[in-house]
Amino acid sequence: MPPYDPSNFPPFAVTVDLVVLTVRRHALCALVVRRGETPFQGRWALPGGFVRADEDLGSAAARELVEETGLCAHDPARPAANGAHLEQLATYGDPARDPRMRVVSVAHLALAPDLPAPRAGGDANSARWAPVDDLLRPGTGREDEQATPLAFDHARILADGVERARSKIEYSSLATAFCPPEFTVGELRRVYEAVWGVVLDPRNFHRKVTGTPGFLVPSGGTTTRQGGRPAQLFRAGAATVLNPPMLRPEV
Amino acid sequence: MPPYDPSNFPPFAVTVDLVVLTVRRHALCALVVRRGETPFQGRWALPGGFVRADEDLGSAAARELVEETGLCAHDPARPAANGAHLEQLATYGDPARDPRMRVVSVAHLALAPDLPAPRAGGDANSARWAPVDDLLRPGTGREDEQATPLAFDHARILADGVERARSKIEYSSLATAFCPPEFTVGELRRVYEAVWGVVLDPRNFHRKVTGTPGFLVPSGGTTTRQGGRPAQLFRAGAATVLNPPMLRPEV
DNA sequence: ACAATAGTGTCTGTTAGACAATATACG
DNA sequence: CGTATATTGTCTAACAGACACTATTGT
């Protein structure tokens, strides 16, 4: 039995990495930044950074999110003006995951509505939204500079984050985190379609979401930004879990 | 922008804490150990310890599990002889969670079949299975020595682990991790009843679990250890997700 | 015989999924 | 008018939940 003396613990660095997801042009996209230093210099990576000495893990993630995107995390209630959903994802601590030293990374998952453009330190070329299908595709010959594998174990972290998002919109109202404050049923349906990579029946979807109490509340207005008949505008309701859940179609 | 120099990171200690759950006498129970040192000396706590310098997080959790219970973790396939399910739960890093120094704890969740008795360093009085309802009950006057609040933030960690187990047996075959290698439908039902704290209809439950392909495979034998008509024995099948899920009854 | 548990069958209400039909905008 | 999207309605198969009934052991 080793003594529980906190002074002879092995030295660790603790970081937070962010899987920031959004839906752009009908595709699920993740925020990636270009690394300026070794290791993996020039490769794309998930945004992240060291946890400060007196900072909680969630606070560190929220700070990084603001630094990278300007988004405010909005955990307890639902996204207000410029808020994004933020939750802890998982922790990655393989001794060899960073060649420099022992780094344990507490990954977080953030879901945001479509945003104008990423800004990382003001450098436009050093951050971008990339479709997750491109980032996670294993070497398929389409190995241009945009599709090189992510640094460190970030492909695994991203895959875990995507899977969390895909499963969580089934039984929670989290899909609304991808939408602006006011949105139509069709826009919400296109979120589900993009995240799951499927096509859903608009009529059954409409009946399902409007029939689930507390999921959507009408905000009064209508919009015609999608063309066709004007659609009713909704806000996210108070319900956080969906019962019964949205069913993801089989493969 | 702080420089990404891994040599000027704040000093962290990284530990793993274990939420080990089992079902004993029709109640969901967790393994707790008595602390021998300050802080929280004499209080009950979740088992855990420091992650070693060249050890993966999952390996550290598996090592602690063996040290505390003698159980072998058995992640990929299903519990064989003496295997338990082990998965990462969440990470807790409040700067004030340990008064001695900055400690980040990567909590893991383990599910085990009913075991003879815990052994922690051979000391029988320093470890026990306690009903989670007792451990999580806020001060209700029943504040005897057995029910004093857990050390550190372990009550929160335990609550998160219990909630994870409760929700995960809905849509996965994980409930079989609480059962011995061979079990009856009735025994499996009593697991669900203990974990959820509800009473289920034996007839509908039987129809549901035997009708879900891949959940249970008959092992040929029968048993009468519960009294009454002999029951068919089953093993856990290959299916890991249940579709459609088991439905947890409403409150 | 009685108690206890295992297992099968039957009925009913709800819901998912397929799809017809109507409504209201823009061009 | 044609096209596009929104919204309502209808039908059917599957399933959850309630519960009657039979089967097989021990006492």
From TrEMBL, chains A, B:
CDD domains reported in the protein's UniProt record: NUDIX_NadM_like
Keywords annotated in UniProt: Hydrolase
Gene3D superfamilies attached to this UniProt entry: Nucleoside Triphosphate Pyrophosphohydrolase, Winged helix-like DNA-binding domain superfamily/Winged helix DNA-binding domain
Superkingdom: Bacteria
One Pfam family it belongs to: WHD_NrtR
Domain Nudix hydrolase intervals: 11-153
InterPro entries membership: NUDIX_hydrolase-like_dom_sf, NUDIX_hydrolase_CS, NUDIX_hydrolase_dom, WH-like_DNA-bd_sf, WH_DNA-bd_sf, WHD_NrtR
Name of the protein: NUDIX domain-containing protein
